[in-house]
Amino acid sequence: GGGGGYGGGGYGGGGGGYGGGGGYGGGGGGFSNSEMGSGLRRIDWDLSKLPVFEKNFYYEHPDVTKRTDDEANAWRRSHEITIQGDGIPKPCMTFEEASMPAYVLDEVLKCGFNSPTPIQSQGWPMALLGRDMVGISKTGSGKTLAFLLPGMIHINAQPYLQRGDGPIVLVLAPTRELAVQIKGECDKFGGSSQIKNTCVYGGVPKRTQVGDLRNGVEIVIATPGRLIDHLESGVTNLRRVTYLVMDEADRMLDMGFEPQIRKIVQQIRPDRQTLMWSATWPKEVEGLARDFLTNYYQVTVGSLELTANKAIRQLVEVVDDHDKYRRCSDFLRREFKGERVIIFVETKRGADQLTRSLRMDGYPASAIHGDKTQDERDRVLAEFRQGRCNMLVATDVAARGLDVKNVQMVVNFDMPNNAEDYVHRIGRCGRAGATGVSMSYFTRKAAKMGRELIRILREAGQEVPPELEAAAMSGGGGGGGSRYGRGG
């Protein structure tokens, strides 16, 4: 049951941080990715000198014990879950079976969740056993709670933070938006057990972040660059981290964060528990897992082949660039009934131009892209979430890590460059079991991904327009320039 926090004791008086900080040349800025973190001392960890910590909190519920392996495997098959590793625990079908303490269970029930999502059913016992794990699952599958709730149970079994201690749980995320969402879940579920958290990311002044870190927080959710800033200036340290999460690992590598991630992990004791989450499993991510995880479980939801959510009706029209806006406007007139829609474009300039055209046609559109200030992005997102503006025009980079519930429609005004991004984009509608519709405008410029697109459509039982087959066969050359210019 709810019980008494971090089992007393304490971590040898928690000596005063990294030799009194002293700052790192006042944040001289402008480091390239690979130079970043050059001020961090390599730590040669001697495990015999470190306090021992507990990481196995799993108690198998009698109902789970009673289930046969055949029943467990049948359940996994029906939920498209594949597993690798030795000593894999059986999934838990209900919150009660997950051996969550009362304080966690109460919060979960308050939020109106009836039963765990498939990734939680299989992921919780794995994480609670204290083992390293890789979870491969699309966004919107409930993965945030799959790593957060076991993290909170882990925290509650450790000695309280002393002055100068850094966090116990560290979550690395690729973007500010994703970090802020994870923080939202932490606030919701950590409140009753007084677990403090803070979010650390670039693009905003450091003051508040520094204050939180100096006061001591159990959970830090961070983008890699800004975390390194705070480590170099001695504001915090990672000596007490025993539970490390890398969320959207594939995106972090795409964005060039690998050198920073390696520097950060070097600052964390090697006998920690590490959980890595990714929407895809390219060999770069696998390499990272091999370097950072030991004897890990791997759990995959859905196939590793790129597949689109079958709850999404995928429409594709083959068009000329100059005709795209008219076709899109016709489609919105027919299909748009005021629900939430995200329209993807390739460039920032394209986003602004399309938003202007849509507004002139009376649609409530707002744009979000990398040139907008953080305040503007936050405002547009808040309006979109609250339903005050229902049409969001976005570039891929701006949409990464965006978690907006109840998006019913996705429009690919400009096709993405690859099939992975296509699946990622349309996966933003039809989440949490709802159905959605996606419309994609396929121009000659996108011809090289035609075959892959056809495979995705067929696999999801969708209609393949004959014009798309013809375009894919011809593998067409570069199409005529669009009037939505390519501006950077």
UniProtKB/TrEMBL annotation:
<feature type="domain" description="Helicase ATP-binding">
    <location>
        <begin position="124"/>
        <end position="299"/>
    </location>
</feature>
<feature type="region of interest" description="Disordered">
    <location>
        <begin position="467"/>
        <end position="488"/>
    </location>
</feature>
<dbReference type="InterPro" id="IPR014001">
    <property type="entry name" value="Helicase_ATP-bd"/>
</dbReference>
<keyword id="KW-0547">Nucleotide-binding</keyword>
<dbReference type="InterPro" id="IPR001650">
    <property type="entry name" value="Helicase_C-like"/>
</dbReference>
<keyword id="KW-0347">Helicase</keyword>
<dbReference type="GO" id="GO:0003676">
    <property type="term" value="F:nucleic acid binding"/>
</dbReference>
<dbReference type="GO" id="GO:0005524">
    <property type="term" value="F:ATP binding"/>
</dbReference>
<feature type="compositionally biased region" description="Gly residues">
    <location>
        <begin position="474"/>
        <end position="488"/>
    </location>
</feature>
<keyword id="KW-0067">ATP-binding</keyword>
<dbReference type="InterPro" id="IPR000629">
    <property type="entry name" value="RNA-helicase_DEAD-box_CS"/>
</dbReference>
<dbReference type="InterPro" id="IPR027417">
    <property type="entry name" value="P-loop_NTPase"/>
</dbReference>
<dbReference type="GO" id="GO:0016787">
    <property type="term" value="F:hydrolase activity"/>
</dbReference>
<feature type="domain" description="DEAD-box RNA helicase Q">
    <location>
        <begin position="93"/>
        <end position="121"/>
    </location>
</feature>
<feature type="short sequence motif" description="Q motif">
    <location>
        <begin position="93"/>
        <end position="121"/>
    </location>
</feature>
<dbReference type="Pfam" id="PF00270">
    <property type="entry name" value="DEAD"/>
</dbReference>
<keyword id="KW-0378">Hydrolase</keyword>
<dbReference type="GO" id="GO:0003724">
    <property type="term" value="F:RNA helicase activity"/>
</dbReference>
<protein>
    <recommendedName>
        <fullName>RNA helicase</fullName>
        <ecNumber>3.6.4.13</ecNumber>
    </recommendedName>
</protein>
<comment type="similarity">
    <text>Belongs to the DEAD box helicase family.</text>
</comment>
<feature type="domain" description="Helicase C-terminal">
    <location>
        <begin position="311"/>
        <end position="472"/>
    </location>
</feature>
<dbReference type="InterPro" id="IPR014014">
    <property type="entry name" value="RNA_helicase_DEAD_Q_motif"/>
</dbReference>
<dbReference type="Pfam" id="PF00271">
    <property type="entry name" value="Helicase_C"/>
</dbReference>
<dbReference type="InterPro" id="IPR011545">
    <property type="entry name" value="DEAD/DEAH_box_helicase_dom"/>
</dbReference>
